[in-house]
Amino acid sequence: xxxxxxxxxxxxxxxxxxxxxxxxxxxxxxxxxxxxxxxxxxxxxxxxxxxxxxxxxxxxxxxxxxxxxxxxxxxxxxxxxxxxxxxxxxxxxxxxxxxxxxxxxxxxxxxxxxxxxxxxxxxxxxxxxxxxxxxxxxxxxxxxxxxxxxxxxxxxxxxxxxxxxxxxxxxxxxxxxxxxxxxxxxxxxxxxxxxxxxxxxxxxxxxxxxxxxxxxxxxxxxxxxxxxxxxxxxxxxxxxxxxxxxxxxxxxxxxxxxxxxxxxxxxxxxxxxxxxxxxxxxxxxxxxxxxxxxxxxxxxxxxxxxxxxxxxxxxxxxxxxxxxxxxxxxxxxxxxxx
Length: 338
What we know:
Elements: H1 2-20, E1 60-76, E2 80-100, E3 103-115, H2 120-129, E4 146-151, E5 154-159, E6 163-166, E7 170-180, E8 185-195, E9 211-223, E10 229-241, E11 254-267, E12 270-279, H3 289-292, E13 295-305, E14 310-319, E15 328-337
Antiparallel strand pairs: 1-2, 1-15, 2-3, 2-4, 3-6, 3-7, 4-5, 7-8, 8-9, 9-10, 10-11, 11-12, 12-13, 13-14, 14-15
């Protein structure tokens, strides 16, 4: 059912894009709307980088973000045992609106599904074809869902039944600190995010707590001598977490996060992008990479412009630091403005 909804929504946005205009001027280079989808991390209010150039007053942007991430990691220590084996799919309806000349407000409504998925076989085949290590994936049952963390003989997290539902709602606001137009565009924005506990924490669709994020996003973009656009963007911020229901004894109160990315537009309707997202641990008092190490993931892909108002982001993520984020993630983000 959800796949049908996503396909229909994608088709709807694509039709809008092609009907709006067949010609796309040089597109703005914007970050991937991405964050770590580790099952024990995605429940918190970790935001994406955000756009450093805000919408003009009275303008609105609607979007649909879809992320499919494949997890497989197993670790066993004297007092701890963890297995994260499964797929998490996250659909997020997004809206932001230019409320005042320098002020923007927005909302994100996620729908989260945990299940066995379908990516085990393709990933194993890919690893085999290029001689890459399987990491034990080929020895585990295919398309299994098992998110299980045991500590000192007691089960702390156990999700082994597929399910889906609304996640934690997020409200956002951003203020334009600096903006420059012309051949070289620059922007700096102060962002505020408030994540509310609307999801089921027992099924890892929410944390059970309220989180507040504060971060700065900035970017600069211009034209090369060849006429192609280039851009560099980044963000840095902090996330405050109230006590939730998932591992409350180990949950930290603060986490830092940041993004660094660059883009290049070889064509007026195509932007190629590479981006790194990182954050500090959300939990302490653990020897497990899945729980208590800094996370760093790399995302590569690009943006396709259907018109000056409608774009599609396509990206693939890879874990760069142990087992702190999923093995692989697939990102799609459709946006249209009016």
